[in-house]
Amino acid sequence: MPLAAGLKVDFLGWERPVLESAAHRLLEAASPVRSGPTSAVDLSRTLVVLPGARAGRRLKQVVFALAEAAGRAVRPPDVATIGGLPERLYRPRRPQPDPVLDLQAWARALELTPEREIARLVPSRDGLAEIGLVRVVRDLHHEVGGAGLDFRAVSEVCRSGLLFNDEDRWTVLDAILTRYRELLRDLGFEDLSAARAAALREGEVGSEKDVWIVGCPDWPPVARSFVSALAEKTTVRLLVGAPEELAHRFDAFGCVIPEAWEDARIDLPESDVEVVSSPAEQADAVLRRLFELDGRLPAEEITIGVPDPEVVPYIVERLEEREVHVRDARGRAIRTTSPFRLLEALAAYLERPDFEGLASLARHPTFEESLRSAAAVGGSLPGPGVDLPGLLDRYQTAHLQAALDARSLPFGGERTSAPVGPTLQGALKGLAALVAPLGLQDSRPASRPGARTGSRPDSPADSRPLAAWAPRLAQLLDGLFCGSPDIGEDGSRELAFVLERFAESLERLLSLPPAVDPPASAHRAIRVLLDDVRDEALPEEWDGAAVELLGWLELALDDASELIVTGFNDPFVPSSVTSHPFLPHALRERIGLLGNRGRWARDLLALETMLHTRGRLYLVTGRRSGAGDPLLPSRLLFATDAHVVAKRVQRLLAVVGFGAGAPEADATAVAEEGTESAGRAAEPFGVSLPPEPVLAASAPPDRIQVTAFRELLTDPYRYALARLLGLEPVDDEAREMDPASFGTLAHAVLRRFGRSALRTSMGAEEARAALEAFLDEEVRDRFGTRPLPAIRPQVGQLRARLAALASWQGRWVGQGWRVRGAEASPPSGGVPFEVDGVPILLRGTMDRVDENVETGEWCVLDYKTADVPKKPDETHRAGSSKSRRWVDLQLPLYRVLAAGVEREEGGGPLVPRGALASLRLGYVQIPSAPERVGEAWASWSDTELAEAEEEAKRAVRFLRENRFVFDPARSSVRIGDPLATVVGEGVLRLGELAVGGSTG
Known about the structure:
The chain is α/β, with parallel strands linked by helices and 1000 residues long.
């Protein structure tokens, strides 16, 4: 575009901060105004344009401070951002739509688009009514409008010079844009891009104020068009935050020329760069630097840059632990707040009312409290100290539900001492009361043929215009949040702010014209509400004694003396445009939008500005993210001479004990180095890594399950974690029965069979019919009518196994064997097992106790459902044939249990005393191969069984010592095990890293 003569560019230099230099220029150029005994400076007719709103606020503060120091009053300038400048230079002819109306107009324009055109944009129209595609097209229009173009202009650019011609899709987008604008025009509105284009076309650009543009190294092309038009009528002052000797790197608008910065070099002292590992260590580095300052600077003279938002919570936590106040100047995004996330989870559940949706809701910290405060909650909810998400996890593990209905929840198989089904039923009833204001007809999942599991299409009564949803959503918000207690002052302020934004958005929903407000579902109405507020931020209250956290783009114009920049890594500095569904990088640059080369130039200028205008610049780059993923250092660190780059690469890649040229160090040296560096912050930052070296119960146990001896013999430390401390994995990630759950179901069916009148049936067909009937009952009780898809084929597999077992049962009965006990266990908590004169109670349940009516033999059998069956000796002993050692004592100790088991009817011993010595022990194998179903006997001698009992006594003596020492060589816990982090498996230890050892 031709340049207007009214553009005047001045370079501020780097002798002092950019805003301070700009404030001096403004005050020097202003006309003095006599006001009483003192002169005043009038800047009220000046419009100062800056990159961001914070820079504008700070500029006013600097102007006031300089005027006060000179003993003069001042009338402050007006300020604006470069992105909002065009709206300060013209008067629109029609009002612009509010965000909700704008989104709905786009949605309606897409709905009116023929299927053949939609197919050019996306593979399917499915989900088109939802906000995803609508938001993509809307945001694309805003971005292209920033270039001063529309979709038609972009389609013309696509015709030549690009690797791929995407003209067809942009032509479709142009047709959608035309429908969108027609809808707005019919409603009396005009969109932003059209209003700007009209103002430029009609020559309606002007300003009653003098325009100064300060420290803006990159502008959207549309802003350049407006400034050029304005400069044809008046002077526009452009203040560039750089020395004049770099003028060749800037264009006539004071913006960076990407090509001129490609080979630019920056001289960063090595002492200004610190390389650490994790986000937590980045926070520690910040704390060390603050302690090095030793109070020489007030908080307002210290700024912490946070290009990587992941580092923010670590910094806040570390500094607040040391009573250093922190203020995140960016505020907290509403989309990260508790009320927003609760509504987000609720919308997902209303769309798909399945277990996963309910589990997400239950994990929200205020959901349970909202349930309690809902009117007319039916059923029982857990007590205040009960973990509702944990209860749901246990329920799902047992019942594997795809969809939930409070009226038909399966409870079968739950422990009578700790049922979870009724609690879930109460929670579902409470949820129904909570969403009652929405007036939904039926919250149950669809069960029609072909329906998605857990999906419920909206009935006509459940679809309403957004304007009709608004008052219902207001009632829902009242039920969700107004009964919740305030969580401290900050929680109350956050809730009030978010609810106020929700209320404003609901007002916009209420005013929607019918033309762009077709019927919508409840979950879409909630998502429209959320989309309207998601980009707003809750500002943190001003605290003059707080250290401020700023994003990267705000740092160049910040004027604090001490600047600490964390997260100095790719892709945060410089940021990159890597992919876009419609705007690839080449097309982005072709239409004038900021590309990767422009971002490099802008960020290199910012780094130079920080380096030259601060007392000290301190950069912290991390090697890994919080999840342990590797990070790349910022490419700006390599914008220097080749020999410096080589040394810096060696330093950045060097890890103790690893990498070329990395010095060898032993664990002691590393530990000492870590202690020394931590000491710079006045107190150590180190933590005690797991595992706890020694565990002990509050008192030695007086009872033990016979199945627990395997853990005690194999890994005593794990035994203590699981059996004494009660650490057990609980989650809802299962999508099918795992081997343990499969075996539990099989045992439940066989327990029913073993206790039925048919247990002595001679016929295999009778046994098969009985087992199938018991299986159907058990499946119905445990899984209901809507289990996860994998359950039905798994049940079919078990049915085939039980059919093979029925055939074996017929042969077994023909040999004279009869079931005398099923799930047999001793009364009164166990059978005394005397060790060194002191008894301990042995507890356990024997799957099956049988008598042979022909031979008088008795046996104890344990059901095994493993696909690869093993003989009893293989599971109970290990080692060579000459030195077998006991690793499991379950079957041998069944002989002790059998002595204490009584008959179900009439009392007295189930197994006659005289039969105990010859009691046979074995398995009933029920693998997937039907030919392998049958009994497997243990062939231990009396001497070997006596050795097993002695091994049990030694284990009990160890148990009574009550000292469980962690032994890594003996530990059975590996990475991926739920207890892995508890024993330090996968936790990186500096000492092990130094010697190249394994983790854990």
